[in-house]
Predict the structure.
Amino acid sequence: MSDEIEWMSTASAAEYLGITNRTLYRFIDEGQLAAYKFGRVIRLQRADVDAFIEASRVEPGTMRHLYPDAAGSSD
């Protein structure tokens, strides 16, 4: 069945995203990433993590504030 949910632990989700557990918990607490609590255990759906990754994509041309304009360049 292709609709079966693939669950991830917080540790595996953080590793998958390349972030710390603390950052993962912050994303969950801020509502940026959906998580589910089963008793004392928190789990994430891989589909939600993949959607979070896609939503975090940087659009071209939005990073110019991070680097100075080259001297003498013109637009």
